[in-house]
């Protein structure tokens, strides 16, 4: 689609432009010097003194303890981002991105309690918002839909085990609470569970040795 | 008989059928007498940038206006890019209109700072005031609202769309006198604290023409049924919190109340949704045209059940909990869909928390022939998907895609998304608004400059490689009015080469780009009808001229530099050297 065009503009006498746009900037033919996985714009030839506010600089600005970035400000950013164009792992919030209105952020904040759910043997994690469920049954129904190897009838409330239909093994629903202890799901009232749960793990029965119901400290 | 010999009142009568601002502007340019006749009978003005013209000038030219719409801060203020105190104060306008437009009926403000003093002045001075819309505004409290309630005897509409309202204690709703029966629309959804339910109920009961009622979160679900039974004529309803203990009596009461609302076309609210209560609205679903579930944290299966019952749906706002499966159901059921907005439930998370991908959007583009307006947050995209969407929906008018991780490439090929967005602008010839995201080179801007001839607003972040990108847009987009750019390597060349273009646009925002202070100064000096404002909270920008300016806002104006700039905003025009610190 693009042709070999040079971009040129009239001199500035009519005020239309305050400088001519030189022919040194040209569009190339398709396929010419366009590599697929290119380094991001930040790392491309800028003016030497360009202090492009990149992700890294913002992290420095935010004084995050987690960052192990040691490059001084004001330098060209060639070294800081790898060729994949992805931001490094230590994620920080860049002001203005993603473009979500603060009104919306504020309203959703505090209205969700997201925890990770891991199932032993399953290849991926899911996240659930505990606040949208009103009981353990609700939660298990949702987990069933997510990790389709279970069905609710496999849940044995008495023995607090889930039977995986796929491989017939039993799973014990456990969670890590605020005190970093691993507990059995179902011991404490639902609301207390929502408040204290940090994440959930459906553990293979064979590994769930030694987990005992916790005596509630305040009833 | 020539047109110029038609009597004035005939011409005026003819002009009264012309409502659009653009057409009115054209009429006023025909000849001097038409200009005069037209300006005396213009009833409505829209000022897209409150600093483009002074209130005095507006009132002088159009003395008989009944409706004024003003916008203040730049759009990126929504995302915290504009510091507090930047400006956008409405008070000078209200003061001028109190004298100049004593019969003003409508005032619509967006992104402006509105004080209680301003609201009190409206209430005191404008005797025929009927409509107040404060969209994304701030600076006022319920004291100001109390003044409006108490003194605007003919109030029809009070709409506080997503405004930031201080809530000191004080029961402002009960300030509506018993004689006030004229309310047609009340939107208090953004209010953080409780309003008196009894005052609300009495108001609803005595206003038989009430068609829009958007409650705030504090109104409990148990009381909603009662309110609905008092106002079965409602066309638009925003619920309060949609959560209550699971009780069959509450449910049947609610379901019964909803089934009595035969005119209901629009639903919103749904904070804290308990899914068990959703079926209470099923009876109205068949008539719904607008559904705003963007605060409803419910999962895909419940969303599918709801949406599948709304065949007349034209506008859906929803969280990404809807997932691809929910969008598939939407595409299958809602053949009348015009607008879809999918918001992120976890915009700052590291990993995807929902199964929403480009597939959902592709499915909707296939299944919904009237789709014309899209806002879509997701975490992956491909050129193929964008090309498919473009070919499916050439009638697209607004397309805003936000791939959450900056500079994300095509997930299938790892290439930039230039070709995909290129297809959008090439096929969608009427595209008016576009927001880009993902990995993008200068090429996408070449496509945009070449094809997007009707584009009026473009939003760009983390894209492009050089000034050529910006140059393509400024030189190619004939209809461009607003351009907002953050974190792109665009600098002086393109800006200066297209200086005249800036006078044909409403505004240009550039933050964290590569524009030098020198270039800003040059622009400000050479272009007297532009305000070139540099925002820098760390000190005068000319003290470190080797650094690019952090934030730049350029807009056309006929009134010169504004007088309400805070200390961190510099107008770099000719007298910038004389500016007192």
UniProtKB/TrEMBL annotation, chain A:
Taxonomy, superkingdom: Eukaryota
Protein name, per record: Auxin-responsive protein IAA16
Automatic annotation (TrEMBL), chain B:
The protein's name: Protein TRANSPORT INHIBITOR RESPONSE 1
Organism the protein comes from: Citrus sinensis
Lineage: Eukaryota, Viridiplantae, Streptophyta, Embryophyta, Tracheophyta
